[in-house]
Specification:
single chain, 8-stranded antiparallel beta barrel
């Protein structure tokens, strides 16, 4: 009798365990046919490559305007003497292509030995290192010089030639600083005003 009760008790215990604990235990046991797959990683957008900066075009063609100031150092002929003078000047030019440019130059010199000299020349320029920030140049010009002469009531004019060297420093593609030295050779009435013109200026290219 006692054995039968014990057996029934064990049977009830097994049934109770099967009904209460087996489902939770079964949940903890993974099915051999089920494999967890990792979640797919979100795609990472590739960074767009930065566009390289375009090199500055210091030698590009274009129209330019220039304002400058100069000192006139006289190299007089025919035994005349003189003192250093100077004044403002202006240029309007066109950088044709590469190392070549043409320009119209006006130069005014303050009274020098009772002469007020005005110069207008058409210059041709050739640049070295025409794509660099610093560009040395040579120029040749032809034009006229005119003004008053001592003891002459009327204004006189003569042909003049200009031979010069200089250099440009490009601050940006549009703005440049320039220095130069020109040997100016007047003829006829103003032959004695042979001089060096040394100056500097600022230029804007459109």
């Amino acid at each position: 009798m006692t054995d039968r009760k014990t057996a029934l008790t064990l049977a009830f215990a097994l049934v109770f365990f099967a009904l209460s604990g087996a489902p939770a235990f079964a949940d903890e046991i993974e099915s051999p046919g089920t494999i967890e797959t990792p979640e797919a990683a979100e795609p990472v957008e590739a960074a767009e490559p930065e566009e390289p900066e375009e090199p500055a075009e210091y030698g590009r063609s274009g129209v330019y305007l220039e304002l400058d100031g100069h000192v006139m150092v006289p190299v007089f002929r025919k035994g005349r003497s003189g003192s250093v003078s100077g004044g403002p000047g202006a240029r309007a030019g066109w950088r044709v292509a590469g190392p070549f440019a043409v320009e119209l130059q006006y130069e005014w010199n303050a009274e020098l030995e009772s002469d007020a000299a005005n110069l207008i020349t058409v210059n041709g320029k050739v640049f070295a290192f025409s794509e660099k920030r610093i560009q040395p140049f040579v120029r040749i010009g032809l034009g006229v010089i005119f003004g008053d002469r001592p003891n002459h009531a009327d204004m006189k004019s003569s042909f003049v030639a200009r031979f010069g060297i200089g250099g440009d420093y490009w601050i940006t593609e549009n703005w440049a600083a320039t220095v130069y030295g020109d040997w100016v050779l007047p003829t006829d009435h103003f032959a004695y005003l042979n001089h060096f013109s040394i100056g500097s200026g600022i230029r804007y290219r459109f």
